[in-house]
Design a protein that fits this description.
mainly alpha, 91 residues, 5 helices, 57% helix
Length: 91
């Protein structure tokens, strides 16, 4: 039996919850954001997506149906929120 509750995910929770959109953009493109403008743009877009997600979560009505709350609540985890912050799920 595993001691770590998230070990079944095969990842470290601290790494998952860390918020570094520029590093994630570098992972996606394989280039440094310092020298590649496209990588820098992707990093900025990921950061804005996560910020959008926080705003959308705060605007949810917390009444049935809970689609907005579920999507944007789970998306407070940065890697997920960087993408879903750009989605419109019925606010």
């Amino acid at each position: 039996m595993h001691n770590d509750a998230l070990s079944f995910l095969g990842t470290d929770i601290n790494k998952t919850l860390s918020f570094d959109p520029l590093s994630r953009a570098e992972t996606i493109t394989g280039k440094s954001y310092k020298t590649d403008k496209e990588t820098e743009s992707i990093g900025v877009a990921l950061a804005i997506g996560w910020i959008n997600d926080i705003e959308k979560f705060s605007e949810c009505d917390f009444q049935a149906p809970y689609k907005c709350e579920i999507v944007h609540g789970l998306s407070l985890i940065p890697p997920v929120g960087m993408i879903t912050g750009w989605l419109n799920v019925g606010i």
